Amino acid sequence: MSGGVDSSVAAALLKKQGYLVRGVFMVLHDDTEKLEKNLQDLEKVSVQLGIECEILDLRRRFKKEVVKYFLDEYAAGHTPNPCVFCNENFKFKILLEEAKKNGIDYVATGHYALTRKLKVKEKIIYKLFTAKDKNKDQSYFLYRLGQEALARIIFPLGEYEKAEVRALAKKFKLPVHDKRESQDVCFMAGMSTDEFLKKNLKLKKGKIIDEKGETIGRHDGLPLYTLGQRKGINIGGTGPYYVIAKNFKKNILTVTNNKKESALFSQAIELTNVMWTNKSPKLPLRVLVRSRYRNIPVYATIKTKIPVDKKCYTDSMLIVEFAESEKAAARGQSAVFYGEDGEVIGGGIIK
Predict the structure, then answer these.
(1) 194 falls within a domain
(2) How far apart (Å, rounded) are the C-alpha atoms in residues 157 and 109?
(3) Residue of 310, 318, 306, 304 whose CA lies nearest to 348
């Protein structure tokens, strides 16, 4: 529970359904003002719902694991998604450990996603689906949760639109029913990604060249830029310009002012660290692929590059061939596979 409307309504819905609910608040960063406000709201919600809430101070571990991953990936020239990494390796891992340690059956969060339990040939499997509210759907960030985790996770908000959640908060008389929603990456304390990277990485200025090799400006450090980026390049004249390549060896940023430049598009991508929600499917497989959180899913075919084993998790690499060229598929982002019915089949990290 964060002290926000989503996790508060999730707790209220579970209690209404007859569950014995215990709240957990994870302290992850040092934004003192925000932390105090959230704790105050959490206390009010806990009193209103009549539940206990435990506070876990995870700041040191979060910085060492999640923030370090984020900075290391940018320093290597990738464009990471910290929420995907955090959900798999930190947040749900810790919550499930805490639940097991305390004899608690399930973990629930305020994420917008759906899970379903199915019996297939005498075997129980768990499936992950997109939420009813497609604008709020967070299944993209949860694709790395395997069967063991999904068997013990509940997403109470999956069947609701955000407006319905707000209405429920008011109905349940929760003091956070009109609380403003945070859109920031949680550990940036209101900073932009550029501001955070400039504060935490050693950046080296260098040349900006166009696709013909002509020098047209200076960049502020290659980790600040990602494939397809238009804003923040700061070249006047014949823009706007789009990032098409980063050469770390020579510290050169390559851009184009042609929005149809072929280097902006990928006909195919390679994925590593592939995760299947259930067992590995037979390939090739035609699916819908979302190559960034806000991208519209597009049709593509998954093909094997290296034989994929039958385990839930595999480091094998796959090729994803798009039906039509995909713009700005950046290294480090996740490409997530969906079925026509919104089922999350799996995904991997763009290499």
Answers:
(1) no
(2) 9
(3) 318
Q: What are the helix (H) ranges across the chain? A: 5-16, 32-49, 59-62, 68-75, 82-86, 92-101, 147-150, 162-171, 193-200
User: Does 86 qualify as catalytic in the annotation?
Assistant: yes
Q: Which of 142, 141, 154, 148 is nearest to 108 (CA)?
A: 154
Q: Please give the model's pTM, rounded to 2 decimal places.
A: 0.93
Report the amino acid identity of residue 179. Answer: K
One domain, residues 218 and 127: no
The residue annotated as part of the active site, out of 53, 83, 86, 312, is 86
Close Cβ partners of 118 (under 8 Å, ≥ 6 residues apart):
124, 125, 126, 127
Cα diameter, the chain: 67
186 catalytic? Reply is yes
Beta-carbon-side half-sphere exposure of residue 165 (alpha carbons within 13 Å): 26
80 has a pLDDT exceeding 70? yes
pLDDT at 245 over 50: yes
Residues 6+ apart with CB under 8 A from 61: 90
Q: 104-147, pLDDT tens digit by residue?
A: 999 999 999 999 999 988 899 999 999 999 999 999 999 999 99
In whole angstroms, give the CA distance from residue 300 to residue 263: 19
Is residue 240 reached through a cis peptide bond, with omega within 30 degrees of 0 on the bond before it?
Answer: yes
For the chain, what is the radius of gyration of the CA atoms?
22
- The residue out of 158, 188, 218 marking a domain boundary is 188
- Cα-Cα-Cα-Cα dihedral of 263, 269, 270, 271, to 10°? 120
Both 268 and 172 in one domain: the answer is no
Please give the single-letter amino acid code of residue 242: Y
Structural domains of the chain, count: 3
Choosing from 53, 83, 186, 312, which is the catalytic residue?
Answer: 186
- The secondary structure element, H or E, covering residue 280 is none
The yes-or-no verdict on residue 306 having pLDDT over 80 is: no
My answer on whether 56 and 177 are in the same domain is: yes
Q: Which domain holds residue 334?
A: 264-350
